[in-house]
Amino acid sequence: MDGQVLRSSPTRPTREGQRRAARTTADVSLRTAAVVAGLGLLVMAILAGTVTAVFGSLIVAGDAAQTARNIVENELLFRSIICGFLIVAILDVVVAWALYVLLRPAGRSIALLSAWFRVVYAAVFAAALGNLFVAVRLLSDADSLKAFGAGQLDAQAMMSVNAFNDGWDLALVIFGLHLLVLGYLIFKSGYIPRVLGILVMIASFGYLIDSFGGLLSTSYNINLAQFTFIGEVLLMVWLLWKGVRLKEPPAA
Question: I need a surface site. Which of 1, 78, 147, 152 has the fewest CB within 10 A?
């Protein structure tokens, strides 16, 4: 009798028990993660595109005086641009978390590395935004206006804007690494089309080449990312279209 009891009492959880435990402890489903990531990417694309376009209309390359005049005449708009960029950085952290949950079954440690790359990118980008606050402060602060001449203020403000652009290039190097790891995870996941992984990895090389080019030379004006970004767009579309019907992969 005792032997039967011992034999019928497993010392290890069965495979079915492991599956039930995994389903119980999973706090966020892959469908939820896919929708959050897709919506986050959609909002970021709209917001970042709008803010970047307005920012570009105020900054005149090689003309510090005109740039400073644009900032002074549109101070509220310029501050709104900074806030818009900050919201994009916060959304990047949310998307990093959602993509980690989505791709965790494909490789937990690699998915964590991909998420950290995106979080670090967002942190570096947010830190670079401080340079834009310096620029608008220089041109609007009473003490600065008294201490420096108009030409000096214009030049310093332009230097701050350029420092922001350099910080953005540095951040995009990290973002390119994130896309490279992300594309690899998508390729090996088995539940997301492999072609999306390949296209995301191609997009990563566009960011890496452009960012290093901008850091190495101020005259670099090639924009490969505008041709390679299609992988990001297709991933966003897939997450919103197919992600809502995504099934949980079998438990290991």
Answer: 1
Half-sphere exposure of 204 (CA within 13 A, CB side): 20
Crossing angle for the helix pair 64-73 and 30-58, nearest 10 degrees?
110
With helix as H, strand as E and coil as C, how does 150-177 read? HHHHHHHHHHHHHHHHHHHHHHHHHHHH
Q: Are 249 and 191 in contact (CB under 8 A)?
A: yes
Mind listing the pLDDT tens digit for each residue in 71-89?
A: 999 999 999 999 999 999 9
Looking at residue 250, what DSSP letter applies?
P
Scored b (16 or more CB within 10 A) or e, 106-118 reads: bbeebbebbbebb
Max Cα–Cα distance, the chain, nearest Å: 97
Closest alpha carbon to 114 in 222, 13, 204? 204
Q: In Å, how far are 14, 115, 188, 238 from 120, measured between CA atoms? A: 40, 9, 24, 25
Rounded to whole angstroms, the Cα distance separating 39 from 211 reads: 26
pLDDT tens digits for 45-67? 999 999 999 999 999 988 899 99
Low-confidence ranges of the chain (pLDDT < 70): 1-26, 143-148, 248-252
User: Please, which residues have CB within 8 angstroms of residue 227's CB and are 6 or more apart in sequence?
Assistant: 206
C-alpha count within 13 angstroms, C-beta hemisphere, residue 105:
19
Q: Residue 242 in 3-state DSSP?
A: coil
d(CA 215, CA 207): 12
Distance CA 157, CA 133 (A): 10
